[in-house]
């Protein structure tokens, strides 16, 4: 196997347990000098020492495995744009912090988030109009799911247990949920008027759950499952919520709704049956959606949550993008990161998918750090009402690291050893690619070169990073 260096993590684990190097070395049956070299990354962990460490500390071997730092590195660069002078901090220094001291890196990122929140609040109270304040609660909730790799174990298992007790069967989930709401909670499911503004409304006084008449069967099931999350899993939701620190009650309430939606997705698509079907069908989203009677977006989003330790699916990134390039949903079980500033990359295939509605567009994309991903993108359209009513069109993007691509049906016909690669970036301000004709802003930490005697095809001429 590749050499494994995990000195910082080992040292932190030893100090948390109150052990000296001499004491731990004696337990591991190695010399104190050898342990000192391991902790300072001058010697790698051997298989024998790794096995002993997992036995001594009761941790999974994955605790010592190299962490995917791409996302944290990009967040660090956004958090420290001015540090180090005009040219910014060297990339190698940031990589060292993200790789060897992930807790320090996370603390820096959290401080930067609080700074952004404070700036947004100041702009609001001084009457400087900005959209930042309105977006902050959603960003906090998005970060919460990011930190958990979009898998919330207690909520997922509670939903799976309820699905087992109700006895839901594929393509009959809606009827089972309706029957369970009535028999277990005295809740009647009714239909609202055709012109009602909301798609769901629950009246606790009359124990009535009203659904919009134009909801598809899968959507009806999801809304009934969401109500069951509040009725039967409220304690589980609160336990997860209480374990976090939230900036305000609005964000906390929004997070609870997000967890209820997570529960609903896990209830109508229970983990084990869905995981087995995904593996058997090679993660074909359209076939899975038809197989379980749900929409394309619901099936794709559920695929991005399959990170249970004993039944781990492909780690996916899930995004939902509108025609203006706004990302309204973004969750990830990998290190893939798009910048909070400067927009997303126009070379990404989620934008090409709008030109071919209903068709899956496949792209092998390479990030500036050399990491390659297989991306699948397809449009979905939502409409309420009849003729003349407005429709909403989004592109659903689903991506995974290229090393996982062989598990997907979408890799058929691709040369995964030497594929045609599209170079993309996390966002113009944090992308290091020097010769990108689509660049919309100069990169952070690179001096802008201005010469009235010369022009180039590239929109921004920049110098080298120090």
From TrEMBL:
Keywords: DNA-binding, Transcription, Transcription regulation
Gene3D superfamilies hit by this protein: lambda repressor-like DNA-binding domains
InterPro entries: Cro/C1-type_HTH, HTH_RamB, IrrE_HExxH, Lambda_DNA-bd_dom_sf, ScfR_C, TransReg_Diox_bact_type
Domain (HTH cro/C1-type): residue spans on this chain: 10-64
Chain spans, region Disordered: 439-466
GO molecular function: DNA binding; DNA-binding transcription factor activity
Similarity comment text for this entry: Belongs to the short-chain fatty acyl-CoA assimilation regulator (ScfR) family.
Protein known as: Cro/Cl family transcriptional regulator
Species of the source: Aeromicrobium erythreum
Lineage, opening ranks: Bacteria, Bacillati, Actinomycetota, Actinomycetes, Propionibacteriales
């Amino acid at each position: 196997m590749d050499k494994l260096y995990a000195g910082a993590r080992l040292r932190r684990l030893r100090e948390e347990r109150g052990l000296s190097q001499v004491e731990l070395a004696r337990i591991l049956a190695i010399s104190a000098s050898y342990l000192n070299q391991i902790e300072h990354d001058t010697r790698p962990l051997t298989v024998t020492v790794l096995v002993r460490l997992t036995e001594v500390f009761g941790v999974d071997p994955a605790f010592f495995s190299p962490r995917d730092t791409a996302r944290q590195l990009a967040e660090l660069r956004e958090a420290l744009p001015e540090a180090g002078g005009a040219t910014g901090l060297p990339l190698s220094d940031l990589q060292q912090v993200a790789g060897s001291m992930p807790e320090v890196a996370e603390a820096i990122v959290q401080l930067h988030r609080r700074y952004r929140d404070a700036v947004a609040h100041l702009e609001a109270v001084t009457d400087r109009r900005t959209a930042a304040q309105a977006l902050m609660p959603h960003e906090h909730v998005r970060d919460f799911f990011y930190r958990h790799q979009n898998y919330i174990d207690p909520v997922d298992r509670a939903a799976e247990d309820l699905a087992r007790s109700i006895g839901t069967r594929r393509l009959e989930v809606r009827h089972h949920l309706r029957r369970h709401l009535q028999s277990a909670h005295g809740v009647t499911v009714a239909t609202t008027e055709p012109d009602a503004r909301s798609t769901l409304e629950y009246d606790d006084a009359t124990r009535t759950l009203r659904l919009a008449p134009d909801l598809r069967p899968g959507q009806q099931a999801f809304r009934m499952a969401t109500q069951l999350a509040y009725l039967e899993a409220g304690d589980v939701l609160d336990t997860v919520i209480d374990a976090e620190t939230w900036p305000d009650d609005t964000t906390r309430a929004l997070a609870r709704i997000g967890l209820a939606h997570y529960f609903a997705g896990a209830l109508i698509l229970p983990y084990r049956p869905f995981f087995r079907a995904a593996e058997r069908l090679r993660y074909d989203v359209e076939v899975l959606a038809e197989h379980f009677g749900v929409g394309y977006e619901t099936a794709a989003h559920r695929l991005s949550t399959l990170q249970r330790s004993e039944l781990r699916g492909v780690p996916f990134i899930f995004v939902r993008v509108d025609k203006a390039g706004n990302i309204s949903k973004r969750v990830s079980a990998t290190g893939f990161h798009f910048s909070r500033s400067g927009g997303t990359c126009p070379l990404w295939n989620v934008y090409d998918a709008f030109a071919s509605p209903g068709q899956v567009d496949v792209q092998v994309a390479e990030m500036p750090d050399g990491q390659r991903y297989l991306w699948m993108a397809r449009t979905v359209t939502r409409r309420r009402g009849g003729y003349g009513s407005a429709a909403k069109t989004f592109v659903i993007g689903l991506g995974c690291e290229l090393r996982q691509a062989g598990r997907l049906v979408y890799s058929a016909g691709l040369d995964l050893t030497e594929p045609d690669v599209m170079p993309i970036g996390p966002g113009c301000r944090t992308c290091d690619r020097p010769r990108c004709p689509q660049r919309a802003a100069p990169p952070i930490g690179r001096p802008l070169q201005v010469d009235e005697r010369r022009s180039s095809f590239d929109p921004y001429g920049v110098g080298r990073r120090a």
